[in-house]
Request: fold
Amino acid sequence: MDKLWAPWRIKYITSTKKQKSCIFCQAAKLKNKHYVVFKTKHSVVLLNIFPYNNGHLMVCPIRHIKDLTALKQEETLDLFDSLKTSQLLLQKTLRPEGFNIGINLSKSAGAGITGHMHIHIVPRWRGDTNFMPVIGETKIISQSLKELLKLLKDAYKKSDKNI
Reply:
């Protein structure tokens, strides 16, 4: 049997305590700066440390709000500009064939973190959903978070921030 190495997931798997503070607010304050790709005036973009696929990013407003309707106009523009920049960064660095982009608002809609709205952007490739998740109940992530973060940050620094 082949073994797949994904050591960053063990924290999530073994965690029994609730998160005391919001991970997105921590990211906005750069307290968990190791996973922040970039930050703007109203938004922060960070790696999902429990990704569905390689390159899975989350784009969120800096202000702690739970619903899209609570965004001010300048926050909305900044948030979607950050989403666009994120997609372009992923296109440049990982060259995916497509994207899933989604917002889950509330627990019943599938949100894992309900108090701070965020947008998921997941790069996709033909064949990235194969027999492994179905038969083996295993998802393969082909790149370490540390390596991916460096790649994305370097691309962001080299860009004109509007890619």
User: Anything to note?
Assistant: Residues 73-94 form the longest helix (22 residues). The longest strand covers residues 119-124. The helical segments are 10-14, 23-28, 73-94, 131-135, 145-158.
